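dumping this here before i forget
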Amino acid sequence: MASPPPFRTARILLHSAAAAIMISGYHNLTKLPINAFISTQYGGHLQYLTIQGLFITCATTLISLLMDLFPSVNALKPLKRILLIIAMPLSITISSIYWPLLLLATQLILQNGSGEPSSSPHAPQPLLRIPLPMDLSLHAVPALTLLADFLLFEKKYTRKEIRYGGTGISVVYTVFYAWWVERCAGFNGGRFPYPFLTDNPFEIRLAIYVGAGMLAFSSFWLINRVHA
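structure:
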């Protein structure tokens, strides 16, 4: 059944505005001086969980927009549900880790552009920062968009979908990103995209990966539970 006109308009506004903001944020990121540093690294921008989450969220949002514009195309609905179960916990995990560290322990989340960890006493300053509007478009808009979309316009996931889909995706993505970021660091002289990984031995990094995966699943479970 098609949504009432005001309801459909709200969906279109949310999805089109969010997609435009996220795409613009990434496009502007590639024009900053920091892009030259990132481009020299193995894995480039895709080393960063933020960028992976941004791409998946953009895909989810654009598919949502297509569903808004062409509600009779039912084939898009299961695709969006699959992407949403990946993108929503991923984007929430990114925001939950990024903003507290940015505010309370900046040197653990921002790179300094040298080969040394940001916490090194020899590390040059300032840290590599991006403008606040761009920061919000990369680290806040994805999570806020998917939360609004899920809670306002989507039905909640079933227990079976949570138990098998949510758990399975959290485990697979955690293992994938742990493997990928360790591989990237191996080609980048032991330097990780995030200083809190560079500064720690493998055992601690492993605990961080597991903790992030558990955060992703628990946040997804909680959000689905409070969904009306």
